[in-house]
């Protein structure tokens, strides 16, 4: 199994309007008044990685990792959003970063889209406009042409649920639209088609000469029934949360989950709509999307309990995805954790379900991590990683084909609407320092030992008196 860590462009790069980069939806949102983001934070400078990429690579070397998962900024490469103008300075930055990684035998794993849509495309409807399927495919072609000679691991789109449900449905992510039950479903269909078009473009035109692999990244929590009487409700909730993206790609039949199609159609009819609010795929589209991923890219953080009784009726805004699913979720009162609850058995159950439901696809765990308020002695994060890696091992022993594990995140970064108030980093970032100094936490020492030994020692305790340094060969 490969071990790595991850970041995303808007969260670390900074240089938001420098060297030809144009505005994206997070630039727009973070500059709005009154502020939508905690403490009026922005990603204008973030971790200053546009200028500090060599230090970032040095950190990967200190940890002894196999790969570094990054994302490309669409507006840094294509400032008009389209391929008519390629920004050489932006291309140069990514070339320098990719080449620096390869110089030290670190595999670059590259995400094409991690939430920072060009504002110009958002003004045209963003992911609710079906033309975005072509816009994204054009952008993907440019990336494959520019970087595919060296990048052998591609991720098309990171976390469709957060883009669609949070961005278009419940207004907790840019573009902060509150239109659940309509826009989020349109977004879901267009994202799946955009992903599939980019996949087939790579498959048909680039795979034979570049020799890479490509897939999608789906976020999934584990939804556990509060008691057995809610087993069906929990299963339906899983389909509404992540089956909506996994089923069309990884199931034998393809298409949106049957239970979703039925429930949304019935609700829509009762509500007086002429047709289902969940858009149909044509038979051709079903075939296009089905099988369009070389692996199951999985982001997972935590779990919830779910139930469904008479109290759910009227609980959610109607119409909405949550009303369509008709369940209520909550965190266990005994679960440990600050912002991220530590529920390793949920991760094991999720990995098992993916293996059983989708014929054991290769899994790349592309994000797994723990949010804290900060501090170098991050014992809770160490506990989280220890227990979640143990759950991963259990799934592997039962036959799950897990190829990679990615700690989120390499360093503290701009955590979306939370700004810099939530910290996920193996390295702490000093936001008072102009250099954005990075300092390894206890979890960095712990993760380095995992990557070095490929062994989970329950008694291992890091010695933080010894500076974290680069081992020979890295």
Automatic annotation (TrEMBL):
It comes from the Eukaryota. Homodimer. The keyword Glycoprotein applies. One of its GO terms (biological process) is carbohydrate metabolic process. Signal peptide: none annotated. It comes from Euphydryas editha (Edith's checkerspot). The lineage of its organism: Eukaryota, Metazoa, Ecdysozoa, Arthropoda, Hexapoda. One of its GO terms (molecular function) is beta-glucosidase activity. Belongs to the glycosyl hydrolase 1 family. InterPro entries: GH, Glyco_hydro_1. This is Beta-glucosidase. Keywords: Glycoprotein, Glycosidase, Hydrolase.
